[in-house]
């Protein structure tokens, strides 16, 4: 297997792993298990459908690496071709990274019992059906917040 093939395989693995974080309300990160978490109560005022895009930076880095390597194989101007290849690869990789791991999500506007309005985006989940006007529980950790029916 030649170097180009190995770089392409590396690129595919890197971009496909761009977003490993789950934003589903029923999934808890292992680092949060067993820790005290804050709980807020409120009323769900509005639900809007949104999309969480994938990681552009990781895709751009992978694309630049592969593009630079492929472009530098030019015998007449390897440095210039490598730079151009890196720029093109970065632009393509950025778009691939943003699109490959898109997640359908919900933006939840909640009025807390204190009267404060907050908004939380989380992945849509059939496990936790939410409706406007419903009482909800917001579970807060140091890394994220999850909304579920109360």
Describe what is shown at a glance:
The protein is built from 3 helices and 5 strands; from the N terminus they run αβααββββ.
Describe the protein in words:
The protein has one domain. The model has no long low-confidence stretch (mean pLDDT 74). The chain has 150 residues and is of the alpha+beta class. A five-stranded antiparallel sheet has the order 3-2-1-4-5, with no helix packed on it. Helix content is 35%, strand content 29%. β2 and β3 form a beta hairpin.
Keyword list:
five-stranded antiparallel β-sheet, alpha+beta, single chain, 3 helices
Q: Secondary-structure map with pairings?
A:
Blueprint: H1 3-16, E1 38-52, H2 56-71, H3 78-100, E2 103-112, E3 117-123, E4 135-140, E5 145-149
Antiparallel strand pairs: 1-2, 1-4, 2-3, 4-5
Helix pairs in contact: 1-2, 2-3
Query: Any idea what the radius of gyration is?
Result: 21 Å
The number of domains: 1
3D shape: elongated
End-to-end Cα distance, whole Å, is 56 Å
* Average pLDDT level: 74
Helix content: 25-40%
Q: Give the structural class.
A: alpha+beta
Beta strand count? 5
Could you give a short account of the major beta sheet? 5 strands, antiparallel
Sketch the topology as an H/E string, one letter per element.
HEHHEEEE
How large is the share of residues in beta strands?
25-35%
Low-confidence stretches: none
Spatial arrangement of strands, main beta sheet: 3-2-1-4-5
| Helical stretch tally | 3
């Amino acid at each position: 297997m030649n170097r180009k093939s190995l770089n392409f395989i590396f690129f595919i693995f890197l971009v496909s792993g761009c977003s490993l974080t789950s934003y589903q309300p029923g999934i808890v990160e292992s680092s949060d298990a067993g820790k005290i978490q804050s709980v807020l109560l409120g009323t769900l005022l509005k639900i809007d459908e949104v999309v969480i895009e994938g990681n552009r930076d990781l895709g751009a880095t992978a694309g630049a690496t592969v593009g630079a390597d492929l472009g530098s194989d030019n015998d007449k101007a390897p440095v210039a071709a490598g730079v151009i290849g890196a720029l093109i690869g970065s632009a393509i990789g950025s778009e691939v990274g943003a699109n490959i791991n898109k997640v359908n999500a919900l933006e939840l506007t909640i009025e807390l019992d204190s009267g404060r309005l907050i908004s939380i985006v989380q992945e849509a989940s059939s496990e936790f059906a939410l409706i406007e006007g419903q009482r909800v529980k917001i579970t807060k950790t140091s890394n994220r917040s999850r909304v579920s029916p109360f």
